[in-house]
């Protein structure tokens, strides 16, 4: 074995000419000599700072991998002078954490939950004090905090921190050199007027938790309280390599510490990130609070109030809940509980934190389990970046009043924001795709936290170079943990210089991109620009034939648009809906299925459907200043003259006012699941878009949903739906379940029923009959009898 190992080396050594070896050795010596001369020469001209540049990293390498040490204080003493310069790149996420904390503090200050100049901050493992100085970029540390404590075990790092704050002249910062496990807040520095049970207002730990020995490990079987698992998984190689790497520094990357944080505190915001400078080092940011949202019985009461708003139930005080149930106005109604309530009660009974949604500053996003397959099937992608429904027609048909309770599909949230401008009592936004609701949440947060200029750049132009900073410093207090995780991972949607912004993302981006590529390939960009700038219908109609000859050419549609793949991936049209389009074509032309088998006519039916959609739009609506749906598709962004109502300055004034979103509830679930948990006869309006088209005609889902809507809607309550079919097959299911159905819009060849004109028909289904009486028996579920 040894001869085989040494053989190749011997062969190379003997095979090389000694002259080459001498030349190589000489060259190495000369290079080393030149380097020494340059260093010595620079010392004579300017004193070399061995704590900056390459020298700082050489010192870091020596202290971590060469110098013997047996405890952390020895490790940090050698590199205390270069700690900040090396860790700035190695320890990512510190500024993001500080920005998130500062945003929460500002929110509490605005809501009078905190007094400026009275807050107490403890930075555990603060080291050189870098975090405290960096916080000044977000809040004025000397004026905002009455006292700041930096706690660290390393004397050398504490000394650097003391020098830092002496230089800054900050008198309210105290450096405490001791073990963080034994630190207690000094009583003399706590305001006597404060609640005696209250401690620090904020505690931060920047990587220091990984260096504190584990006292106990908490193992829980269900974790519905961690605030989302986006980007949390680290593959085996990443876990094994980085764990071994950091153990050399006495830094432990096992998951127990994070598990304990999430068990001990309620999750406000959590994010899992990677530092790709050195190959993707995993790190996380955790913002938490005391896990009891209110003391003692008030905690249960707060949950009851939220549950009542989720289910449209009257609120009954839990102090004598069962007695009051007998006297309630709906005493004969089954007891309706939301999934959020059931999860909260189970968690409380097990002494676990509540689901993260209960700790958010706003409670419009209702708890859901983001790990269920029905949610993960969307692979962290929304389908629609904007809503394909004309709200102008919705308002005309529905005439929304202040006492209306509306249930509507979220989609991209545009129409939800339109409905909210009418100030209805409640709007339940429902979508099975969590990412569609993340998009709605982002829009709501922008109205609450940003001015109209920033709102316009994000959703009018679809791009904002400072989006990441806004997300962390201003939007984060108004987002759920899951939505924050999603947008933190997708900041490039708005910030990428090479991308075209929000409206070329999502599943439907394929169609928009394809149209843009076609126009560019055929040199039609100038004609498209003219079409979008046309001032009259006559001018628009004159330009359209030149664009139409390319965009609606039969070869293109037969090869691409008429395919089933394109219908779903690019246009968001599922198979069942596509089949409805084909069936209508067959009926109009007196064809049979046997004819279709002999000659495939489905492609022609899709082509005709597209023609009937687009031609009337150009003939009847102005794209330059009114039809923002097609303006967006052609230009990739809105214009000031052609944009949804929610992007106008007037809408911003309305929706940025206090309490504008108090009536909003965002459900991440199927419609059937949501309406089954809403108090019977409480809804007045339901807007289901074209979702009924997705059902299988051979299945029982459509009939079941019609029955549940009858149960949830008040008498004379209305359902607004659109369909790709002129006579949808499921209308009979509504008529069999207590509804009177009326077609209020029909698109025939050459006609235009709204600015989208994509659907063949629009229907209003009015509940005119109760199909079942409210049961006298109260429902029993798994949490009814849990005592808290």
From TrEMBL:
- Asked whether the keyword Transmembrane is assigned, the reply is yes
Q: Which UniProt keywords apply?
A: Membrane, Transmembrane, Transmembrane helix
Transmembrane stretches, start-end? 20-40
> Does the keyword Transmembrane helix feature in the UniProt annotation?
yes
Q: Which residues does the UniProt record annotate as the domain Methyltransferase?
A: 122-191
CDD domains given for it? AdoMet_MTases
The molecule here is called Methyltransferase domain-containing protein
According to its UniProt entry, this protein's organism is Aspergillus versicolor CBS 583.65
């Amino acid at each position: 074995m040894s001869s085989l190992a040494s053989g190749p080396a011997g062969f190379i050594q003997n095979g090389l000419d000694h002259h080459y070896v001498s030349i190589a050795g000489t060259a190495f010596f000369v290079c080393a000599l030149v380097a020494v001369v340059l260093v010595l020469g620079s010392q004579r001209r300017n004193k070399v700072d061995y704590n900056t540049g390459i020298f700082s990293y050489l010192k870091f390498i020596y202290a971590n991998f060469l110098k013997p040490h047996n405890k952390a204080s020895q490790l940090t003493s050698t590199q205390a002078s270069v700690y900040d310069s090396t860790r700035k790149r190695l320890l990512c996420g510190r500024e993001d954490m500080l920005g998130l904390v500062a945003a929460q503090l500002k929110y509490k200050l605005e809501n009078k939950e905190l007094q400026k100049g009275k807050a107490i901050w403890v930075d555990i493992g603060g080291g050189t004090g870098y975090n405290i100085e960096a916080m000044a970029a977000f809040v004025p540390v000397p004026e905002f905090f009455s006292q700041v404590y930096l706690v660290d075990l390393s004397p050398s790092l504490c000394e650097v921190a003391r020098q830092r704050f002496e230089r800054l002249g900050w008198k309210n910062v105290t450096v405490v050199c001791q073990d963080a496990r034994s630190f207690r807040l000094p009583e003399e520095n706590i305001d006597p007027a404060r609640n005696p049970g209250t401690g620090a207002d904020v505690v931060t730990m920047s990587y220091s938790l990984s260096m504190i020995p584990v006292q106990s490990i908490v193992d829980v079987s269900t974790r519905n309280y961690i605030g989302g698992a986006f980007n949390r998984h680290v593959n085996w190689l990443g876990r094994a390599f980085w764990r071994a790497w950091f153990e050399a520094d006495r830094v432990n990357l096992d998951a127990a510490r994070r598990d304990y944080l999430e068990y001990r505190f309620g999750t406000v915001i959590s994010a899992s990130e990677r530092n790709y400078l050195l190959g993707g080092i995993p790190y996380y940011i955790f913002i938490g609070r005391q896990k009891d949202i209110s003391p003692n019985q008030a905690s249960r009461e707060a949950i009851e109030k939220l549950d009542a708003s989720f289910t449209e139930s009257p609120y009954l005080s839990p102090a004598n809940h069962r007695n009051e149930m007998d006297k309630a106005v709906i005493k004969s109604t089954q007891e309706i509980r939301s999934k959020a309530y059931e999860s909260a009660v189970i968690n409380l009974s097990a002494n676990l934190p509540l689901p993260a949604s209960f700790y958010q500053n706003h409670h419009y996003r209702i708890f859901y389990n983001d790990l269920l397959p029905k949610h993960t099937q969307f692979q962290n992608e929304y389908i629609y970046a904007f809503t394909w429904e004309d709200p102008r027609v919705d308002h005309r048909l529905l005439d929304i009043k202040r006492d209306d309770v509306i249930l509507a599909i979220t989609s991209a949230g545009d129409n939800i924001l339109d409905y909210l401008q009418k100030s209805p009592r409640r709007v339940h936004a429902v979508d099975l795709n969590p990412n569609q609701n993340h998009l709605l949440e982002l829009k709501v947060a922008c109205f609450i936290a940003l001015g109209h200029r920033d709102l316009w750049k994000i959703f009018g132009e679809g791009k904002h170079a400072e989006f990441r900073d806004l997300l962390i410093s201003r939007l984060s207090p108004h987002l759920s943990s899951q939505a924050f995780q999603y947008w933190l991972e997708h900041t490039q949607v708005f910030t990428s210089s090479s991308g075209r912004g929000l409206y070329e993302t999502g599943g439907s981006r394929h169609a928009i991109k394809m149209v843009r590529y076609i126009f560019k390939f055929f040199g039609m960009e100038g004609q498209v620009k003219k079409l979008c700038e046309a001032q009259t219908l006559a001018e628009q109609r004159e330009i359209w034939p030149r664009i139409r000859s390319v965009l609606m050419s039969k070869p293109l549609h037969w090869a691409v648009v008429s395919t089933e793949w394109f219908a779903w991936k690019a246009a968001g049209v599922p198979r069942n809906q596509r089949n409805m389009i084909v069936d209508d074509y067959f009926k109009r032309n007196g064809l049979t299925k046997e004819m279709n088998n002999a000659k495939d006519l489905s492609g022609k039916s899709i082509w005709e459907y597209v023609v009937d959609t687009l031609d009337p739009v150009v003939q009847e609506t102005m794209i330059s200043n009114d039809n923002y749906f097609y303006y967006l598709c052609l230009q990739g962004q809105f214009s000031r003259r052609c944009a949804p109502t929610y992007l106008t300055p007037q809408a911003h004034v309305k929706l940025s006012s206090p309490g504008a979103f108090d009536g909003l509830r965002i459900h991440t679930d199927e419609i059937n699941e949501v309406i089954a948990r809403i108090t019977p006869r409480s809804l007045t309006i339901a807007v289901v878009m074209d979702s009924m088209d997705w059902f299988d005609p051979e299945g029982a889902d459509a009939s079941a949903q019609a029955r549940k809507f009858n149960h949830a809607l008040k008498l004379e309550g209305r359902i607004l739906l659109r369909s790709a079919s002129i006579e949808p097959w499921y209308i009979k299911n509504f008529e069999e379940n207590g509804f009177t159905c009326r077609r209020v819009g029909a698109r025939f060849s050459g006609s235009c029923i709204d600015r989208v004109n994509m659907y063949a028909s629009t229907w209003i289904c009015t509940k005119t009959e109760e199909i079942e009486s409210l049961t006298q028996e109260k429902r029993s579920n798994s949490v009814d009898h849990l005592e808290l």
